[in-house]
Design a protein that fits this description.
Shape of chain A: globular
Distance between the termini of chain A: 40 Å
Number of domains of chain B: 1
Largest sheet of chain A: 2 strands, antiparallel
Order of helices and strands of chain B: HHHHEEHHHHHHHH
Helix content of chain B: over 70%
Oligomer: heterodimer
Structural class of chain B: mainly alpha
CATH topology of chain B: ABC transporter involved in vitamin B12 uptake, BtuC
Structural class of chain A: mainly alpha
Order of helices and strands of chain A: HHHHHHHEHHHHEHHHHH
């Protein structure tokens, strides 16, 4: 409000916060609508939220390290198995297994983070591609502990209110909250000075080093924090399904789904990851319902066509028509 | 003790030669086209299932079916090159993901039309029976596969050293821009390499089909071996690939046959490669050129 003036002016114009509020509102109302219309569809909504919750930290990791991690599912395995083993063998409640899964993600993220410094370019991509497969081998070797391809079952559920539909609705809200929390945190990171450092590293590591950016420290932090976030998603999978098997999450097929969320969404655009998550989940559901046993063939085929035709993903289509700079943003080399 | 040494030596040779056949194509593509063919797994699946398709649907004999499979595989390789690699050469993540999708589509198609219960089996046994080498009993077909690996690699090396086209390939792998300036038709050579790398993989798959498990997802395990060998040997360098194949073969033979813990075979090779990547990231041989 100007001194002596009568007209109120918004410090931040409504269009900058109106649309995000509308979209978050839609995401909150949608599960409620689905609950009353067709409750089993909530499982797809949960799947979409979780895929987005994996893809959003992966975007941070990719931009912060300047490299593409081809094995984010390794940390899902870490978080999931940590939660499963502690729940089954020690009877820990989900609150405690959450802390354990986060710490496990933090620890293994820290252990693997030197890869982002030592291994350059495609070596890094190959190593990260091999890590989940290495983990899968370990689960088969120590099948007494990890139960091999059968996996661990009997994990305490996160929510149990006596009604299957109501459980699903609560899970949907928890997964949505997790996704939005990740989005909020990472959006804040991308608007901070750390983002300037990451953008510099992303563009040219040597120049970034030359201008005083601590490249190694930034890379390690950009590796560890997303690793912990993805491990928490693994924790959620374990307690949501009540069972956890590495064969579901560690192979390349699951990695491809996560990657397609980032690519379809808009090449590591974090808002695009939400669009990508919902798109991929509902596409898979529609194909299963309409094409039956042909869906495992058609699903990757459609994703391949979309990958080749949508250069900037679905979010890119939206931005082309409604291009607007909401706030000064950094240009990351994606 | 003597039996252990015999077993190690024999299976190092056999497995190493087989892994050499499996990895040669992957290493060549890395060295010449400078891309990671993460869809490499599809070649193994396509070899078995396209051959089976011609035999079961059209009732062709084995040899005509193999010939037809070769034609289809060449077509797929050229389609991948022109439709994916050439168009998205500057966007590596699209190439990598696209190639992975191609492999998954072919795998899922094989699983849909020829599930494991179908009992797909190719009678490509060249030398039946078993032989005893010292105290070690080995399948003759496996010995044949090992010798085939050595012979094929030798022919490839001769090709790269003694022919003009081989020289062109080596030049491109060293410096693509200078090769273009010297008048080498780089795009045609790339296409040729995409088809050439099918040969060792197809030979390996047909050689081991009668003795090892055949199923739609068989390609992934071999692709992982190819990746490990290529990383260990130095991406795109055939000399390194040869050495790395026998190192991985040695690991597998010791762990699988001497220590008798086959479950640890994959893990042992992965650990060796991880250590090499930390100690000497460029691999055993520096990968400046293919040879």
């Amino acid at each position: 409000m100007r001194a002596g003036g009568g007209k109120w002016e918004w410090h931040i114009e409504p269009r900058y916060w109106r649309n995000p509020l509308i979209y978050v509102g839609i995401l909150i109302i949608a599960p409620v609508v689905v609950y009353f219309a067709y409750p089993p569809l909530l499982a797809t909504v949960i799947d979409a939220n979780l895929l987005a919750a994996i893809a959003i930290p992966l975007a941070l990791m990719s931009i912060g390290t300047g490299r593409m991690n081809f094995g984010p599912q390794f940390y899902i395995g870490i978080g999931g198995y940590a939660a499963a083993l502690l729940s089954i063998h020690f009877g820990l409640n989900p609150g405690l297994t959450l802390i354990a899964a986060a710490l496990a993600g933090l620890f293994f993220g820290f252990l693997m983070s030197p890869l982002s410094i030592i291994a350059g370019g495609l070596y890094y991509s190959l190593l990260t591609l091999l890590l989940p497969l290495l983990f899968l081998e370990v689960t088969f070797i120590f099948s007494d502990l990890f139960k091999g391809d059968t996996g661990l079952s009997g994990i305490a559920p996160l929510v149990s209110v006596g009604s299957f539909s109501l459980n699903l609705l609560i899970y949907a809200f928890i997964s949505l909250a997790m996704m939005l929390f990740y989005l909020f945190i990472i959006d804040k990171i991308f608007r901070s000075r750390y983002a300037i450092q990451m953008a510099a590293i992303n563009d040219d590591e040597e120049v970034a080093n030359g201008i005083g950016v601590n490249v190694n420290k930034t890379k390690i932090i950009s590796f560890i924090i997303p690793a912990m976030m993805v491990a928490v998603v693994g924790w959620f999978y374990a307690h949501y399904y009540g069972a956890f098997s590495g064969l579901t999450y560690l192979p390349l097929t699951f990695m491809l789904k996560v990657f397609m969320v980032t690519m379809i969404g808009g090449r590591t655009q974090i808002y695009g990851c939400i669009i990508g998550g919902y798109f991929i989940s509902f596409l898979e559901l529609i194909l299963i319902r309409t094409t039956g046993d042909m869906s495992p063939v058609l699903f990757p085929l459609i994703l391949l066509i979309l990958l080749l035709t949508l250069r900037e993903g679905l979010f890119g289509l939206y931005r082309k028509r409604h291009y607007r700079e909401y706030m000064p943003t950094l240009r990351f080399r994606r | 003790m003597l039996v252990a040494i015999e077993t190690t030596l024999i299976y190092t040779f056999l497995l190493g030669s087989l892994y050499l056949l499996v990895s040669l194509g992957f290493s060549l593509i890395c060295g010449v086209l400078r891309i990671f063919h993460l869809g490499y797994a599809y070649i193994f699946t396509a070899t078995i299932y396209f051959t089976w398709m011609f035999m079961s649907v059209f009732h062709w004999g084995l040899v005509p079916s193999i010939a037809a499979m070769l034609v289809i595989q060449a077509g797929i390789a050229i389609a991948i090159y022109k439709g994916l690699i050439v168009r998205y050469i500057k966007r590596e993540e699209i190439i990598i993901l696209g190639l992975l999708f191609v492999a998954i589509i072919l795998e899922q198609s094989a699983l849909r039309f020829y599930p494991i219960q179908t009992g797909v089996y190719l009678e490509t046994t060249v030398v039946p029976g078993i032989s005893k080498i010292g105290q070690v009993t080995v399948s003759n077909q496996l010995i044949f596969a090992g010798i085939l690996g050595i012979v094929t690699t030798g022919l490839f090396v001769l090709f790269f050293l003694k022919t003009k086209l081989g020289l062109a390939v080596r030049a491109i792998s060293y410096d693509i821009y200078s090769s273009r300036l010297m008048g080498i038709q780089v795009e045609r050579v790339f296409m040729f390499i995409m088809v050439l790398v099918l040969i060792p993989v197809i030979l390996a798959t047909l050689a081991i089909a009668p003795i090892w498990a055949v199923e739609p997802s068989m390609g992934w395990g071999y692709m992982i071996i190819a990746i490990l060998v290529s990383i260990l040997g130095g991406l795109g360098n055939i000399k390194g690939t040869i050495m790395a194949s026998y190192i991985i073969g040695f690991c597998h033979s010791v762990v699988g046959f001497v220590i008798a813990q086959p479950l640890y075979m994959g893990l042992s090779a992965l650990i060796v490669v991880l250590i090499m990547l930390i100690v000497r990231p460029q691999g055993i041989a520096k990968s400046e050129t293919v040879w």
